Amino acid sequence: MSAEYATPVSKEGLEATGSAITSASAASRGSRPGGTAGRRAGIILLGLIVPALILLAWHLSTASGFFRPSQLPSPASVLAAAVDLIERGQLATHILISTQRVILGFLIGSLLGVLAGALLGLSRLADVLLTPTVGALRAVPSLAWVPLLVLWIGINEDSKVTLITIGAFFPVFTTLYLGLRHVDRNLVEAARAFGVNGVRLLTTVQLPAVVPALFSGLRLALAQSWLFLVAAELIASSMGLGFLLTDSQQTGRVDRIILAIILLAVIGKITDALLGIAERWAVRRWA
Prior knowledge:
- The protein is mainly α.
- Helices cover 80% and strands 0% of the residues.
- It folds into two domains: 39 residues; 196 residues, MetI-like (MetI-like fold, Orthogonal Bundle), CATH 1.10.3720.10.
- The radius of gyration is 27 Å and the shape is globular.
- The two termini are 46 Å apart.
């Protein structure tokens, strides 16, 4: 374009344009939290539609007599069972004991899974030596460990936490091991070219590269921990949600069985949501 057709831009015009862009950007940033909060609230409400429909179908099926109370008690009966346990001071104890067992087993199993996954994922020799054995142990059903744990550890709290630890170990180990195996080798070689090796290479390059995979394993491990809880509380337990399930089965309290299942689902979802918050923070921070 020739010079006579170029539109002259003054210093004042540039400053005004820059000010407008800055104001628009600030306004956009200011509107994001509200927009994000609105979207999250909408997602939560959409997620509640199916549970509400299930609750409605449950109420209608019991009110119409389609299910007998001995088969499926009404929502009101389950709520009355919860109120009765609260008044007895038992429900909070069941929840707290089970949650404590899950958290302890999950933390120990996840830590061991990270250590083993890092070892086998980074060392070719350890991979060749240990991967077949770990893969075989992973195929052992959870209930198969119960008699051995009772024999070795006894029927105390340690055996229950150990069983949950076993359940939490393998998802974390597997996802971290596979994630480290698939880290971009060019990225690793570039880091080594700048003198980054050993533990520093693991913490600054390799682990940040597998943060999403690691948290996928952690969330699977948390779900496994709640699954293994019921098996763990079969080991001569006198409290806990797993005990509440088995005790209610023996006494024919179907309302308490349904209550225990609902509590396991709700608490499991809450703990998974908390881990999801940590995952989003970690991905923004390191990934």
